[in-house]
Design goal:
Blueprint (H helix, E strand, L loop, with lengths): L15 H11 L17 H9 L33 H14 L6 H9 L3 H19 L2 E4 L1 E6 L25 H14 L3 E6 L12 H7 L7 H22 L4 E5 L5 H9 L4 E3 L7 H7 L6 H14 L2 E8 L6 H14 L3 E6 L16 H14 L9 H6 L3 H6 L5 E2 L6 H4 L19 H10 L3 E3 L23
Parallel strand pairs: 1-8, 1-9, 2-3, 3-4, 4-5, 5-6, 6-7
Helix pairs in contact: 3-4, 3-5, 4-12, 5-13, 6-8, 8-9, 9-11
The chain binds 5'-deoxyadenosine.
Amino acid sequence: MGDKRKTGTGSQGGTLGEEIAENLAESDMGRDASGAAETGTRTKEEDSEAAGAGRENRSPAALGGTGFREEYEFPEALFGEVPASREEERCLRLIARLARGERLTEEEFFAVLSVRSRKTASLLFRTARRVREQFYGKRVFIRGLIEFTNYCRNDCYYCGIRRSNREADRYRLTQEEILSCCEEGFRLGFRTFVLQGGEDGGYGREKEAGREAARDRGKETGRETAAFYKSDLALAETVRAIKSRFPGCAVTLSAGERPREIYELWFDAGADRYLLRHETADEEHYRRLHPSRMSGSYRKECLKDLKEIGFQTGAGMMIGSPGQTERLLARDLIFLRELKPEMVGIGPFIPHHATPFAGERPGSLKLTLYVLGLVRLLLPKVLLPATTALGTIVPGGRELGLLCGANVVMPNLSPASVREKYLLYDNKLSTGREAAEGLMKLRRSVENIGYEIVAERGDWAGFPKRRDRPNGMRPLL
Ligand code: 5AD
């Protein structure tokens, strides 16, 4: 099982601890390694982990303070041992029940989330690794992330590309630029391309260019619907172009909330998957994170539409977003169990300096890992990325995620010139192993923990093979 991880010795590179040390030594990330602060849901012990992390000295010798030492082979080793207690006993039983496919109540999920000890983490992560290996073996799927526009009509309080952030340097890629990203990605071994962008009503209008497109950008005007329709058609066109050029590849879209007909249009153009995080299943918490024109119930409707249409659908949430509690996370887990998404995106919340949440605390590394493990047990076949945010909050974070049940990574394929403009949060990684060109490095670090990056589409394990749609494209008739 996942226990045979230390394949790398000598020139291969060493343990995860060494990897992290190497990482810390070579990058002066200008960021606090573990996010530096605490969330409301952090434990005391996590506080000290965070307090020691990311201070001035980032040399390997200073590693003791990050909470990572060489003996930290497995993420469970990040969790402290606590004196045995009835609560801990109960949690172990609940984790075992979850692994057997039993339905836990909100109360029980709450209990599981509240006790996070070495023992519970060991059971959770070991079982999560076993379950992921049952369906996906040691394979890690890669997705080439193409951030095709950072215009957005929304104003989410946490997000760096929110509409009212005047600091954001806006861009959108043309179809040709997107296709050349795919070209490069295909060469590197990517067989899934993820087109992610803000809710932009101006995509594809660069050619008409001119002032009209510029005037409407990101604005909510009477012309919005028409503008979006054009933009949506242009995106469908781009999907078609990608699918005909790379027929063996999957296309994932992540372009926000759209009417069902538009999702259908994109599906018919050949898009295979769609990512739309629910952010929080609780309506009141949703309102704490978003302006009033957005609603959690509409977001959930979109997700239901996407599933019904036939997309492999992704939901998900940030960990440690302002106002989030373990109680709310328990509700998220129940929501995920009901929706049964094929993919779940989970990463720590990281503040962005030009948003209303600039002064908020980032999410906890350990809680993020814990929720990853729980989601793997809850939805055994799920496609679960070790996210960029996880890699940003701590060096080696994505590798830790893979050891907690994650089985996907999404390196950045966007043109280098725009990468730094797609800043959802501060210090977002876009170079090194995070970048598609850093694939060799990523491959090595994944091998060092006993897994293997593969050049496959990486569909959901239970996804029906559709005869009428061999390339994911429906006949036009
Ligand atoms: N920190 C972490 N994740 C963020 N996202 C947006 N802003 C942040 C942030 N500040 C996530 C959201 C969104 C996804 C594209 O990125 O969950 O759905």
